[in-house]
Structures are given as C-alpha cells and as structure tokens.
User: Fold this.
Amino acid sequence: MVAEATAKPRQETFSSPSEWGRVLRQLKNEVGEIAYKNWLRSMWVERVEGEEAVIALPTRFLRDWVKAHYADRLLSLWHAENRDVRRVSIVVARPLQEHREKAESDNEGEAEAAAAAPIAPAVSSSQREGVRESPLATGEDDRTAPGHDLGSELSAPLDLRFTFPSFVVGKPNAFAHAAARRVAEACIEQSRTLPFNPLFLHGGVGLGKTHLMHAVAWEIRQHAPGRKVIYLSAEKFMYQFIRALRFKSTISFKEQFRSVDLLMVDDVQFISGKDSTQEEFFHTFNALVDHNRQIVISADRSPSDLEGIEERVRSRLGWGLVADLHPTTYELRLGILQSKAEERGVKLPQRILEFLAHKIASNVRELEGALTRIIAHMQLVNREITLETAQELLRDLLRANERRVSIDEIQKRVAEHFTIRFSEMTSNRRARAVARPRQIAMYLAKQLTSRSLPEIGRKFGGRDHTTVLHAVRRIEELKETDPALAEDLELLTRMLQG
Ligand code: ADP
Ligand code: MG
Assistant:
C-alpha cells in the first residue's frame, strides 16, 4: 500500500515507480511489518542516475540504520528488478510535502486499524485478558491530545506467559528477580522513595530479561491497575522519538512520559552512536529520574560495556542498581524444564529432562524449543519418549549447542584474556596492546564461526572486510613464529569450544 505512492521520484528518473514499488514490497515481506514500519516506510527515491539509485530518509539516524542493515539487500533487490542499477546510495534529505502527507495518512490508516483490532495494551484500565498475539499498538500519532491514555499507545503488548509465578528462580537470576519484584512492589505501593532508579537488568540472549520486565508490568496491572506503566523496546522508543523530531513535537513526546509511573525500555544496546538523538533519548531518562519516576532498562551487556554511548550517559545508567542475569546453571535449566512441562500438563521422564538440561546450555529460549518439540512428538505418537528418540529429534539443536560460538563471545573472551575492555574490540584505538587482541579476535571469528569477512568486520565496529582479512593473515603468520601467541590461540580456542 505504501509502496506505490512513496515511489514518486523527485527528479527525472530511469527507474519506473512500479520497479521501486516491487523492491519495497519484497523488502517488506522479508523484514516483516514491524521493521518495515519502524525503519523503511519513510524512504523515498531521490533519483536514479545511470548505475546509481539514491534513496533518501528524513534523519541521519534513520539513514545510518537503513544503511547498516538494509543497504545490501536494497541493492540486490533493485538490481534484480533493473540490471542497470549497480549502486544504491542512502542519503538524508528533507521530505517533500507529498512524502510527509503520505506518511501521515499511513499513520491514520494504521491507527484506525489498530483501534479496530483487539489490542492488549500494557496500560489500560479495562483489563483485557486472554489476548496474546496482538499487533503493536502503533502510538505513532504524536498529535494526540495530552491527557489521552498515551501509555496504551506507546506500550508494546505483554506476553501472558511472562509473569512472576512462571519465572523460575535460581542462583544465576535470583538477584535480578528480587530487584524486579522490589520495583513492582514500590510501584504498587507508590513509595515516595524508589528503591533503586534506574534498575538496569543485563544478561545474554534468552536469559529472562524481557520475561522479568513483563512480569513487573503484569504484577502492577493486577494489584494497581491505575498505575501507568509503559513497556517498549529501545528501537521503538527511538523510533517514536525520531518521529517526534521530524514532526517537531519533541516537547509533546517528553510530556507523554511525564505522567508515567514506570517506564521500561528493553534492549537498550540498540541505542548507540554519538547522535543528537541519543543525547535526547537519555535526557528523557534523566528528566524522568529527576521527577522520581521509576525506570527499568535492559541490555545484553553491562552499562560499562555499552559501546557508542557517552561516558556521562553510561555512568548515569549505572546509578541505580545494576543486576546481572548470569548464564543458566544445570540446576536452573532442570528447574525451568520441570516447571514448563508441568505448565503444559505433561509428564516427562526425569532422564529426558536431565538430558536436555545437560545438553542445551545456550539459552532458555532454545531449551523451551527443545521441550516443545519433544512434547509435540510425544503427543503425536502417543508413546513415552526414549533417550534415543530425543537425541534423534533434537539432532540439529544438539549439534548447534556443541560448537556454536558467537562473535560476541569471542570478543568477550579475548578481551578478558588480554585484560582489555570489551569496548576496545570495536574501538578505533590502534595501540598495540588493544590492536593485537582485536586482530586475534577477528582471526578466531573467522576460524570458529561461519561468518563472512564483511560480517565480521561489521561486528568489529564497522571495519572493512580487508581489515579483517589483513588481521587473519597477520595472525596466521605470527602464529608460526611466536610460540606464546600460538599458545594463547590454542587456549582461547579450547575455552570457546568447550
Ligand atoms: P531475554 O529477554 O533475556 O533475551 P526472554 O525474557 O525473552 O529473554 O526469555 C526467553 C525465554 O526463556 C522466554 O520464553 C522466557 O519465558 C524463558 N525464560 C527465561 N528465563 C526463565 C526463567 N528463569 N524461568 C522461566 N522461563 C524463563
Ligand atoms: Mg528480550
């Protein structure tokens, strides 16, 4: 729907509007509705000249994002449509009136659609239970009058399964869990002094950060439905903010959050880059903290490891309480499996549960996936499952858990090994003390993962693939002549694969 109209080129062009329309539609199919709406909808074709297509976006932030995430795909899709196009440039430009109107009318359409759909907003005085897969409340109409129930527009829907009772507490997550509980209580009691603000939850993927945040929201909704709680992803927060900038309504944007009792922003590692938007983003945080509003933030790393965020901001994020969710232990995994099996009313042999807890150690999400598969199989064949069948069913998962190493992990381990900061892995510093470990990490990334050189480069602060290639070759050479280095490599490899 968006495709055709945004396709109006500004200047004379050799690319037909329908060509661009098809590119957009294809991309939308690939990335999904939400990502499309967040990042791609405001693109337009500035011009097509010879081999080059120029795509424009209204802000630097959007430009950088689209460039980093979608540029390659845009080019190949476009090239597939039109062989003449061999280069896609992405620039910042002021939208023409027609684009702006288009964007606005899109939003109205969506707002209507959203109103008609069964939404389960995080904050709503009328509690609507039983709705899970609801569309994201759009909340993109920043012309809404103040005083309107903004929480319901900004907040993302909550997952019904993510509650405190369903969260299994063990050593690795006990602290984070207690902190989250305490925040919920304080909000319910409307304590004058907040226990810790902000609460910063961090930990690897699939360890329960989102679960805990939703649990806080559910708890409050249950015991104090009048409180305003907003839960949303950092990407969405950022997007809302950028929109406000674009339509020059940052003040109303900030106002929206003033009346909030609790603001929770998930996955803030996505907010980085020394951009004015980042600055503003954290001003909003500060303003809320100053107004004694509770904030909960999550990230996949600690405040001190957040890259591309100013020191001042970083330290402010760590002012309240920083609670770490540690990787799961065998006992916790077993506990989670027992609880999930019970939740689904299924009895599984202890041996199978132990096997899963032992073998699938990466994250809880995968553990749940494994369990789901086993239960589905059991119900289909209607027979008790054996260890052999389980092994067979989960072959791919088991293999992946054996030797999958992520670049993040490599960077982390290498940084630890050489006692440098994790952020040096992506920094520009060239001092030998950090440059060599960085090269070693690139080398290991090439050896131990299936990532391509450009992908590795991107993970190392957006370096070029030639830099990665150079690092790989350099380490290969050095390994032959430097026994200490060879030993380091050996040790790191064993640790990472173990
Ligand atoms: P994160 O946000 O840290 O990536 P999630 O909160 O999305 O992780 O958790 C991933 C999945 O694992 C969810 O289905 C969640 O319910 C489940 N999970 C994680 N930790 C626990 C736990 N301690 N008890 C029960 N379920 C958990
Ligand atoms: Mg999450």
